[in-house]
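wait is this the right file?? whatever heres the structure
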């Protein structure tokens, strides 16, 4: 849901329930959210009680989330934890717009190169993302990501601005000061059989691959990437070992 979204998942919940059960079925309940461009696992519940129980698990960070993303470039080091607070800021450009960005607690002093603590931004939310490189080829990487916190656009911001590896098809976070299509390396364009002028049509390659819910016993919900994502993996020769 949200401004400018025509097809919202909430609108199809009554129809989906009828398709799965029968014409008298009550609508399904949404237990959490996914960004509109993100593919992957979504948890729906038949009863209000079950939905509230699951929502509480999400809220108290008891759900283990695993995402896959195809990014430009390789993160260095190849695995680790990005722990940098995130804040929403207005970008002053010819077309003013808002973006999430990093609000680090420390910076290097330009005078002597020493580490200086910065005054905390009151609106910044603490954000923690664990990442691991699964494969690398054609100037791109396949990454496994675990967002420990749930800040808006967290994975996209931590990869683009924290690790310098924006997600393939993330036109919003590939630049800071302008709204423009992502600029792709020659080898990536060649492998994708794509011209730079058509790059704006590339979808966001971020996929919620697995959710693990502690409901009495651990329930693992897994969703394979959609065809466009799998097609990109093939074209870029990004093989998943034991994937």
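ok assuming it is, sequence goes like this
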């Amino acid at each position: 849901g949200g401004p400018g979204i025509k097809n919202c998942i909430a609108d199809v919940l009554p129809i989906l329930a009828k398709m799965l059960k029968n014409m008298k079925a009550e609508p399904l309940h949404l237990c959490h959210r996914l960004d509109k461009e993100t593919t992957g696992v979504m948890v729906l519940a038949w009863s209000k009680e079950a939905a509230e129980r699951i929502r509480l698990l999400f809220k108290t960070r008891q759900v283990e989330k695993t995402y896959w993303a195809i990014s430009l470039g390789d993160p260095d080091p190849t695995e680790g934890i990005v722990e940098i607070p995130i804040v929403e800021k207005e970008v002053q450009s010819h077309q003013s717009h808002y973006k999430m960005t990093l609000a680090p607690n420390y910076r290097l002093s330009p005078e002597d190169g020493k580490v200086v603590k910065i005054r905390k931004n009151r609106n910044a939310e603490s954000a923690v993302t664990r990442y691991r490189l699964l494969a690398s080829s054609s100037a791109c990487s396949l990454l496994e990501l675990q967002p420990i916190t749930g800040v808006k656009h967290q994975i996209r911001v931590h990869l683009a601005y924290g690790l310098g590896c924006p997600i393939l098809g993330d036109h919003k976070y590939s630049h800071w000061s302008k709204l423009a299509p992502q600029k792709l390396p020659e080898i990536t364009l060649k492998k994708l059989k794509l011209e730079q002028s058509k790059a704006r049509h590339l979808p966001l390659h971020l996929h919620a691959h697995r959710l693990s819910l502690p409901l009495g016993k651990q329930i693992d919900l897994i969703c394979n990437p959609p065809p466009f994502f799998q097609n990109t993996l093939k074209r870029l020769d990004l093989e998943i070992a034991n994937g």
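Residues 62-236 form a domain with the Pseudouridine synthase fold (CATH 3.30.2350.10). so i think its the right one actually
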